[in-house]
């Protein structure tokens, strides 16, 4: 059976992009923090911050809470559905 190009080949399924938009870069720069500064605050690599800011990686829920705490905001104020 040929695939319909939709998720799982199911005719009623929609392909879902799991990646979220986020405001990490905007919030970081507003505070004058470098990527390295934020990485140090979160105890992650600078590459992790780069990947999050570029939408290549969605953080785990615990890391999302740490990011929210670092900016003193709610997760919903930082991470948005596409």
CATH architecture: Orthogonal Bundle
Q: Any idea how many domains?
A: 1
Number of DSSP strands? 2
Mean pLDDT over all positions: 85
The main sheet comes to: 2 strands, antiparallel
Number of helical regions: 5
- Poorly predicted regions are 1-10
Q: What is the CATH class name?
A: Mainly Alpha
Structural class category: mainly alpha
Q: Kindly state the percentage of residues in helix.
A: 40-55%
Strand content is under 5%
**What is the name of the CATH topology?**
434 Repressor (Amino-terminal Domain)
List the helices and strands and how they pair.
Layout: E1 21-22, H1 24-30, H2 35-42, H3 46-53, H4 61-71, H5 75-78, E2 79-80
Antiparallel strand pairs: 1-2
Helix pairs in contact: 2-3
Account of the protein in words:
Helix 2 packs across helix 3. Helices cover 46% and strands 5% of the residues. The radius of gyration is 16 Å and the shape is globular. Mean pLDDT is 85; it is low at 1-10. Strands 1-2 form a two-stranded antiparallel sheet. It has 82 residues and is mostly helical. The chain has helices spanning 24-30, 35-42, 46-53, 61-71, 75-78; strands at residues 21-22, 79-80. It has a single domain, classed as 434 Repressor (Amino-terminal Domain), CATH 1.10.260.
């Amino acid at each position: 059976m040929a695939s319909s190009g939709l998720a799982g080949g199911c005719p009623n399924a929609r392909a879902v992009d799991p990646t979220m938009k986020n405001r990490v870069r905007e919030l970081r720069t507003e505070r004058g923090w470098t990527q390295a500064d934020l990485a140090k605050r979160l105890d992650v690599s600078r590459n992790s911050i780069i990947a999050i800011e570029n939408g290549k990686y969605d953080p785990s829920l615990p890391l999302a809470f740490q990011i929210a705490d670092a900016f003193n905001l709610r997760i919903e104020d930082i991470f948005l559905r596409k």
